[in-house]
Amino acid sequence: MRTISIALRNLLRNRRRSLATLLAMIIGMNAILLFGGFSGNVIFAMQTAYVQRSGHFQIQAKDYFLYGSGDPAAYGIADYQRIVDVVSNDPVLKPMLAVVTPKLSLGGIAGNFAAGVSKTVIAGGVVVDEQNTMLLWDDYGVSYSNPLALTGSRPDSAVIGTGVARTLQLCGPLKVPNCREFAPKAVAGAKSAPDDIQALSALESSGAPAASETRIEMLAASDHGVPNVTALNVVKAENQGLKEFDDIFMVMHLAQAQRLIFGDTAPKVTAIQVQLKHTAQMPAARARIEQLLSSLKGAPLEIQDYETLSPIYGQTVQFFDSVFGFISVLIGVIVLFTVGNTMSMAVVERTSEIGTLRAIGLRRGGIRRLFVCEGVLLGSIGAVLGVLVALLIAYLINHSGITWTPPGYVYEYPLMVRVWGSPHLVIGSSIGLMVVAVISAWWPANRAARLAIVDALRHV
């Protein structure tokens, strides 16, 4: 306690230098905490978006992830409802589960034959109510979502990307903003589709009248390899954020997609989406699902998590980790030299004091402890003030109403800096700053301890 008292008195003796050093520490601490809080919030937002869209896991037929994207019939899960029931009702998994829902992914050609245009698309067949429940998942309080546009729609309804709507000349009928169409190619008296496609569409049609302005035909290969077609009524065009995805996106009701691919045969799905209540439950849930699947008879199945299904998530996390590491090292070097310079100047100015202390019996270790203690005090005070200032700035940012649109997103999200909710970031940054302060104070303290008593007293 005496050493701490003397160290604090020495810091107060030269307030200007101590304040300059503390200011550098506070600025550095704020840079680390604010960027770390921002990057952490972006990562949580991305994770939320992927979990809302695909779940934490997808149960798929073996090798579907590698080879099955273009052949849903060959890699479909036949007895999928039994698997859904087994997973949903398992007593171990049930407390962890939020949603378990089937999905069918397929590719095909969407055509607006009245306008003489068509477009290859990647479509998904979903259970709308269960997908809407998935969209409510928000474990980190960073996102909001709207129900699917298919909610409450007829069985033959579909939603497409704005890029698909632009190509199919549907921007006007669907009232898509900022969507410029090219000159239509339709001729007077043109049919909505060729005769053979009309015949196929009539066979698969539910009989319900479709809105003529937004009617399209979807052509896909059935499970027998022959083409099948169905008429769809597009209820809305939604921007998907990424142009490559927006130009091929389509989603429809699961039953409609199954009729298109499997006709009157037993329907299948390409994936069973499993969404948990919390991401931290993934290891335990995965182990239990694998155990359940191994006990089921039938075609071999495998589990893919959202990070495997969306590699860009892991790449983004690595990018932010790299930038955060670079900023941390840069701030650490600045603090290292700042505190080192402060301690070195203190040694020069207090040489006579060091000689006097040594002369009255204070050992070299005591001198070393004194200067290291000053570094610890600087680091501790700088860390505490840095955290408090960062919390204040983060609060102002979070309540400022500033919004931004992350890459690949459509909606604007509030700009958030997660400092208060990141204890690992706060504690780790504080300890790191104190360690750097101690290291930077060690060399001047060691030099002060090595001063000869007689040489030091000559400065009196």
Chain-averaged pLDDT = 82
The percentage helix is: 40-55%
Radius of gyration, CA atoms, in whole angstroms: 32 Å
Contiguous low-pLDDT stretches (5 residues minimum) are none
Helix count, DSSP H or I runs of 4 or more residues: 17
H/E element order: HHEHHEEHEHHHEEHEHEHEHHHHEEHH
Backbone shape? elongated
N→C terminal distance = 28 Å
Beta-strand content bin = 15-25%
Major sheet details: 6 strands, mixed, barrel
The class by helix and strand makeup works out as alpha+beta
The count of β-strands is: 11
Q: Strand arrangement, largest sheet?
A: 2-3-7-4-6-5
Topology diagram in text:
Blueprint: H1 2-13, H2 15-54, E1 57-61, H3 64-67, H4 80-89, E2 97-112, E3 117-126, H5 128-135, E4 157-161, H6 162-167, H7 171-174, H8 195-204, E5 215-221, E6 227-238, H9 243-246, E7 249-253, H10 254-262, E8 271-276, H11 282-295, E9 301-305, H12 306-309, H13 311-349, H14 351-359, H15 364-398, E10 403-404, E11 413-414, H16 423-449, H17 453-457
Parallel strand pairs: 3-7, 4-6
Antiparallel strand pairs: 1-8, 1-9, 2-3, 2-5, 2-8, 4-7, 5-6, 10-11
Describe this structure in words.
- The chain is of the alpha+beta class and 460 residues long.
- It is 52% helix and 16% strand.
- The strands form 2 sheets. Strands 2-3-7-4-6-5 form a 6-stranded mixed β-barrel, surrounded by 4 helices.
- It is elongated.
- 38% of the residues are buried.
